[in-house]
UniProtKB/TrEMBL annotation:
Protein name (database record): Pentatricopeptide repeat-containing protein
Keyword Repeat assigned: yes
A GO MF label: RNA binding
Gene3D superfamilies linked to this entry: Tetratricopeptide repeat domain
GO biological process, alphabetically ordered: plant organ development; RNA modification
Residues in PPR repeats: 24-58, 125-159
Organism name: Rubus argutus (Southern blackberry)
Keywords, comma-separated and alphabetical: Repeat
Length: 298
C-alpha cells in the first residue's frame, strides 16, 4: 500500500519491512519490486544482495525486479552476473525473467544477447514478444521489430496494449508515419484493443519526429480523454526539435497548469527562446554588416 501511494511513502514501507520479525519471500519480493518500480534501483540491488545471502529463496519475481534495476542503471556486468544466477536457478527461461533479460540487454545495446534470451523462452504469450520488439525498436532496428510483429500474428500469439506501444515506437523511430497511423487505427477495429494514453503519446512522437506538428496537435485535440503530461511533453520535445516556438509556448502553458513546479518545462522553453534570440541577433548583425539587400534570404 505504501509503495504504491507515492515516493514520499517509500520510507514508511521500508520501516514496516525492517520492523518485521520474520520476513518471508512475499515480503522480500514486495519491497524489492516496489523499490525497483519506483526508480530506487541502487537500493533494490542492495536489498537483493541481502536477500541472496539470507535464507530466502530467490524466485522469478525477485530476479525480474533486480534485472529491471540493472536495466535502468545500464549495469551490464552486474546484469550478466544475475543472468548466470537465473541459469543456475533454472529460471532463465521463465517468461518474466526472460522478458527482463531481453530488456536489460536491449537497453545496454547488446541486442544479440537479447535475441538469445528471446529464442530460449517459450513464445506462447505476448510477454517476451513485446520485450524483443521494444528492444529492436529502441536499438534502431525498426524493420526487424515489424517482422517480429508479423511473426507474432502468424503464430497467433494474443496481442495486447503493450504490443502496440512497442510497434508504434518502432514506427516512430523509423519515420514510418503512414504505417504507424494504420496500426493506431486498427487497434480497436481489428484487435478490439482500445487505444490508451501511451498509444497516443507514441503517435504524437511519430508525427513530431516527422515534423508534422499540426497533425500531432490535431490528434491530441481528438483524443477521447484529457491529455496527460507525457503527451504534452512529447509534443513539447517535438516543438523544440522543429524550432516551433509559438506552439511550444502554448504546450508549455498546458504543462505548467498540470505541473507548475516542473522545472524541465521552463528549461526547454528558455532554451528555445535563447536560440531564437541568438538567431535574431545574428541576423541583425549580418544585416548591419552586409546591408539589407544581401541577407533577404536569412
Amino acid at each position: 500500500m505504501y509503495l504504491k501511494s507515492s515516493n514520499n511513502s517509500l520510507e514508511e514501507a521500508l520501516r514496516i519491512f525492517e520492523s518485521m520479525e520474520f520476513k518471508d519471500r512475499v515480503s522480500w519480493n514486495s519491497i524489492l519490486t516496489g523499490f525497483s518500480q519506483n526508480g530506487l534501483n541502487e537500493d533494490a540491488l542492495r536489498l537483493f544482495a541481502h536477500m541472496r545471502y539470507g535464507e530466502v529463496e530467490v524466485d522469478h519475481y525477485a530476479f525480474s525486479a533486480v534485472l529491471r534495476s540493472c536495466s535502468d542503471l545500464g549495469t551490464l556486468n552486474l546484469g550478466q552476473q544475475i543472468h548466470a544466477l537465473t541459469h543456475r536457478s533454472g529460471l532463465e527461461s521463465n517468461e518474466f525473467v526472460a522478458s527482463s533479460l531481453i530488456s536489460m540487454y536491449s537497453k545496454c545495446g547488446i541486442i544479440e544477447d537479447a535475441r538469445k534470451s528471446f529464442e530460449e523462452t517459450p513464445k506462447d504469450s505476448s510477454i517476451s514478444w513485446n520485450s524483443i520488439i521494444f528492444g529492436y525498436a529502441q536499438n534502431g532496428q525498426g524493420y526487424v521489430a515489424l517482422d517480429l510483429f508479423s511473426q507474432m500474428k502468424k503464430q497467433k500469439v494474443k496481442l495486447d496494449h503493450i504490443t502496440f506501444v512497442a510497434i508504434l515506437t518502432a514506427c516512430s523511430h523509423m519515420g514510418l508515419v503512414e504505417q504507424g497511423c494504420k496500426f493506431l487505427k486498427s487497434m480497436e477495429s481489428e484487435y478490439k484493443i482500445a487505444p490508451r494514453m501511451e498509444h497516443y503519446a507514441c503517435a504524437v512522437d511519430l508525427y513530431g519526429r516527422a515534423g508534422h506538428l499540426d497533425k500531432a496537435k490535431t490528434l491530441i485535440e481528438a483524443m477521447p480523454f484529457e491529455p496527460d503530461t507525457v503527451v504534452w511533453k512529447t509534443l513539447l520535445g517535438a516543438c523544440r526539435a522543429c524550432g516551433n516556438i509559438e506552439l511550444a509556448s502554448q504546450v508549455a502553458g498546458y504543462l505548467l497548469e498540470l505541473e507548475p513546479e516542473e522545472h524541465c518545462t521552463y528549461v526547454i522553453l528558455s532554451d528555445m527562446y535563447g536560440h531564437l534570440k541568438r538567431r535574431e541577433d545574428t541576423v541583425a548583425n549580418l544585416k548591419q554588416s552586409l546591408g539589407e539587400g544581401d541577407v533577404r534570404g536569412i
